[in-house]
């Protein structure tokens, strides 16, 4: 974990990439940002301390390549009003795939405890940091429960897409989310979150060389976008 970037650096990179790519007109700028997101995902995939897997990188590269190929090929073979609307949609989706790749990197790398420590070090009030940490802890539970409920319904020969199945899918999922929320709230109270005293943490968060490199790269992207 010590070699991973600071959560604040990751969030800053995510914000800069997401804000610059949607206003960029140059396809080469989009390709460059797409390559940067791929490198970030690949670097996390080879680190055993993250949730990022090589399959994430493969899915991202395939999605980005297919959308980019359609953006370049369709105007050459199909010129009409319908193709113009389709190109507008594909251009947006192509850029969104880069933001999604950076978002996947952030989700796979940032741990709730590390994020909470980083936000607390930035003097951000606990009324903002605690809900974010709880949300990050609940999301994996929801994903696991969705898979478990879907598998149970398939074993009983029920289609997940049917109207009747919505009842059998939604009620267990909601009960699990409520139960997980209660458990997390109890754990937070036991740890003293929300109290007047400042909680301590064994997590060390500090600015490293890797953070400086990432920030210099994304700032360079922002400057490139301004001068385009």
UniProtKB/TrEMBL annotation:
It comes from the Bacteria. Keywords: Membrane, Transmembrane, Transmembrane helix. It is found in: Membrane. The chain crosses the membrane at residues 25-46, 58-78, 84-107, 209-227. Pfam families: CbiQ (PF02361). It is a multi-pass membrane protein. This is Cobalt transport protein. The lineage of its organism: Bacteria, Bacillati, Actinomycetota, Actinomycetes, Actinomycetales. CDD domains: EcfT. GO terms for cellular component: plasma membrane.
């Amino acid at each position: 974990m010590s070699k991973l970037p600071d959560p604040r650096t990751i969030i800053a990179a995510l914000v800069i990439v997401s804000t610059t790519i949607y206003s960029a007109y140059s396809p080469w700028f989009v390709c460059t940002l797409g390559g940067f997101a791929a490198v970030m995902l690949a670097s996390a995939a080879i680190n055993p301390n993250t949730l990022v897997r090589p399959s994430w990188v493969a899915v991202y590269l395939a999605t980005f390549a297919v959308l980019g190929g359609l953006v370049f090929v369709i105007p050459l073979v199909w010129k009409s009003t319908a193709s113009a609307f389709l190109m507008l949609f594909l251009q947006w989706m192509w850029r969104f795939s880069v933001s999604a790749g950076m978002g996947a990197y952030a989700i796979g790398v940032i741990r709730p405890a590390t994020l909470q420590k980083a936000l607390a070090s930035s003097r951000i009030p606990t009324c903002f940091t605690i809900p974010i940490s709880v949300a990050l802890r609940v999301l994996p539970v929801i994903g696991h429960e969705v898979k478990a409920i879907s598998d149970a319904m398939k074993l009983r020969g029920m289609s997940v897409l049917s109207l009747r199945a919505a009842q059998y899918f939604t009620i267990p999922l909601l009960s699990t989310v409520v139960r997980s929320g209660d458990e997390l709230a109890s754990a937070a109270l036991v740890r003293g979150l929300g109290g007047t005293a400042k909680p301590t943490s064994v997590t060390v968060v500090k600015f490293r060389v890797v953070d400086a490199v990432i920030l210099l790269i994304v700032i360079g992207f922002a400057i490139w976008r301004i001068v385009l």
